[in-house]
Amino acid sequence: MLFKMKSNIFLFLLNAGSLIEFYMKLLNHCHIMSCANYITKVVAIFILSSTFSLAKQHQVDKPNILKIDIDDAISLTLSKNYFVKVRSFDPEIEKQFIDFNKGTFEPVVGLTYRLEETDVLENTGNINDKQDKGSTTLFLNGVMPWGTEYLLEVNQSKDILRDSRSHDFDSLIEISQPLLKGFGVNEGLASTRLAINRFEIQSWIFKDVVMDTVRDVAIAYANLYAAQKNLEVRVESRNLAQQLLNDNRKRASVGRDAESEIVTAQASVASRENAVVNAERTLLFAENQLKQYISDDLLPLLSYRVETSGIDHFDEPKINIRNDFKNSLTLRPDYQQAKLGINASHIEVKRDKQRSLPTLNITFRAKQFGKGNTSSNARDVFDHQKPRNFTTTLEFSTPITRKSGRAQLRASELALQQAELDIKYLEQGILLDIDNAASNLSTDWNSLQITKQAVEYAEKSLSAAEKLRKAGRSTSFVVLRFQNDLERARNDYFQAKTAYFRSIINYHYAVGDILHFFKVEIPYSKN
């Protein structure tokens, strides 16, 4: 870009110099006062138009560039990605069911009023009168986590028939306690504990989504870096071939090289130009792949070229598989989900044991009441005489074979055994994931060192071949071959560099600490 701008300025100055020379010649052939004003206007217009054209050319050549590092790419992705935003609601939705199940133990208070009107028949079958009954009841009832059901009730009623009036005022306490089926905290809180368990599972699932997204965008960033370096290598290789072609033409013009040297260089330039075109297309695809992660509005971003600021983390890997495996069991979402699955199975087994038992309930009922011909008399009897009624009920019932309850319990026990075996299988898979990732990391590190040396050797070989050719002891064909070797070595180096970076990403993903590695906090946390 700087070269183009300098070239345009040079052309502008050259044109301006030519115009001044024309201006001086014209003054010699016309009246100085009549021609000078006209020519001055022409010069001014030319200068302004040339300046505008130069500025416009500079503006056209300058593309919109968005240069970001990998931290920016991850941050933009987590703030813009629709899928991550959608999945962030799952833990919060599941959390509401915890309060929903806790509401089972919330006391219920209520007030009821009942009015009843009944026709009174005589012995002859005729309607003789009407009987009015009305009652008002205030109550409080609920269930405790260990299965106790309670009812507290206060009732006031009146019964009117002709001139006869009867008023009642009473209170009631009723407590029912399961002794077998439905007894204990495990049964009463099973739904709440399962809801808490599901909430924790959803939280780990969302963390898994974030980890997958971070890994994917980091790999997309690495792929874009590789595509950029690939294009740079292809352009540099083409320029080397073009430089050789230009040199061959100069040497042929003075009879030092044959025309075949020019043809050989021309063929190489054409071939490498095609490689540049393909590299540009690959770069465009890699840019679009990253763009779909970092923005939720792609249309404005399509006019931008995305450039990476490079990738680092190229120290020799220090791997301790035993320690990393131990850490992975506390960091990996899939393993934590499996552990929570076992915990849920334990809760279900305890619950189903209770449900498989026979029903044995004991109910205690205590009532204090008062009667009178007025409401006041009824309350006096209630307060002073305190007549009471006590009832104790023992209820037992059971299905003859209890097949349904036992089958449910057996299914829960089998599900628990399955979950325990499944987590052992998962542990093996995690260990293999880490070991394979460590192997790839070590291999890619060695490949990076080898390709780095290969570039150095290829550069030295090309330099030696160019010196021999200038001395007339080699040909363009040999130089082009060494240029191809250098191109391949440089491309292999950047591919190895990218592969090693991807291996770092995959290793930390296998261990489960990829968010810590990139210093990422879980977004959209509502906990």
Overall pLDDT confidence: 84
The string of secondary-structure elements, in order, is: HHEHHHEEEEHHHHEHHEHEHHH
Task: State the end-to-end distance.
Answer: 51 Å
Multimeric organization: single chain
Count of DSSP strands: 8
What general outline do the C-alpha atoms trace? elongated
User: Which runs of at least 5 residues are low in confidence (pLDDT < 50)?
Assistant: 1-61
Content-based structural category = alpha+beta
The radius of gyration computed from the alpha-carbon positions, rounded to a whole number of angstroms, is: 44 Å
What summary fits the major beta sheet?
Answer: 6 strands, antiparallel
Strand order of the largest sheet: 2-3-4-5-7-8
Percent helix, as a range, is 55-70%
Number of helices: 15
What amount of the residues lies in strands?
15-25%
Structural topology:
Elements: H1 2-29, H2 32-61, E1 64-68, H3 70-80, H4 82-87, H5 89-102, E2 108-121, E3 127-143, E4 149-161, E5 164-178, H6 185-188, H7 190-253, H8 259-294, H9 298-301, E6 304-308, H10 321-331, H11 333-355, E7 359-372, H12 375-385, E8 388-397, H13 403-470, H14 476-511, H15 514-517
Parallel strand pairs: 1-6
Antiparallel strand pairs: 2-3, 3-4, 4-5, 5-7, 7-8
Helix pairs in contact: 1-2, 3-7, 5-7, 7-8, 7-11, 7-14, 10-13, 11-13, 13-14
